[in-house]
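Fig. S4 source data, part A: sequence.
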Amino acid sequence: MELKYTRKNVYKEADGAELEKIYDFAEGYKHFLDNSKTERDASVEAEKLALENGFKPFSFSEKLKAGDKRYFLNRGKNIFLIKVGKEDVAKDGIRIMVAHVDSPRLDLKPNPMYEEAGLCYLKTHYYGGIKKYQWTAIPLALHGVVMLPGGKKKDVCIGEEDSDPIFYITDLLPHLASEQSQKTLGKAIEGENLNAVVGGLPAVDCGEDEKETVKAAVLNLLNKKYGITEVDFQCSELCFVPAGRARDVGFDGALISAYGHDDKVCAYPEMRAIFDCDSPHTVVAVFADKEEVGSDGTTGMQSKVISDVIETIAHSFNANPIEVRYNSKCISADVTAGYDPTYASVFEKRNSTYISCGAAVSKYTGARGKSSTNDTSAEYMGFIRDVFDKDGVIWQTGELGAIDLGGGGTVAKYIGNLGIDTVDVGVPVLSMHAPYELISKADVYALYKACLAFCK
């Protein structure tokens, strides 16, 4: 029996065959990430993959049976994957994995377009916790949907292909930034100044009284390509996200830099796990929306939809939904802050998670005195340990930074509020919420193995 706890490094423990599996899994993840920059993108991509893996659309009026594989796409921004097992759901409950697929970004305002000094701009309202200065002077892509009169929907994705234009938020040149440089990082760039340049070519056929000729030209282009008029922005969900693809980092390619690791780096492993598992348990994987802004609304984890799905499964087997919930178990698959030696003062080394040291288990999150958190019981932590150790999963425990320096929460508390044992299990991330975050390929694969063990 090993008396002393020693944190393991996944790469150090891996042989040649395991290392190949880690890198191969990362390629699938990068492809998913490149096609899933928004919650809409991720849900549609998951639907496509679910269909390829034999899943069929779910109906709340359907009576499910063992062996069924179903998916429920909720308003295009939230998806449930359901695999029905042979165990009695009343006694066995459901194995639930939840990750969110929304990420910090810049949403367009309802009336976003204006012209100033020969340039056309779109005004934004930032979504989620960002450092505003990080979003200037980088290439941006425009993603989302626009609803036209009569219910016709137009999908928009501009800036991801090499032939596409990108969009850009200006910053002040250092020669004139003496006053700006005296401000704190949080004040140097104001939220109302996160306005993206979207055009600079004046229309040539405007009348003499037309003052906004560049705006007129941009609107003309949008109308020709998408049928959009300016008022249609009021019935749209459009956002700017960093343009470009996920890229390997380092001479050895052991790491990945990309937009949206938080939290698609957890969504992909849970999705792959439900596709790949051969489990006697009924398993549900959830891609949630709105986590970055409180999990409210019809597609967030505070919605009643998850209870409705559980009740439908329970009623299919004449089981009491309350009993099913009480006996269910959940992994809240969300990222945590990996220890960053450059900023060591905000971490507590002994209780931090480390890059490449496996799946990160957080017994609690919250802030300061554990406020607004799901604090997992010792009994459930013991269950998780046994499940992971039995399957050789490399995992670690840690907190999100040092006490009293901030904190954060996940959807775990909302699952816990349903009476379901829940623990946070995710991937350590460096530069979390930045336009480009950093993770280890080893940790993505370790989380996949953790989710697979949990499903089994």
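Fig. S4 source data, part B ends here. The first helix runs from residue 10 to 13.
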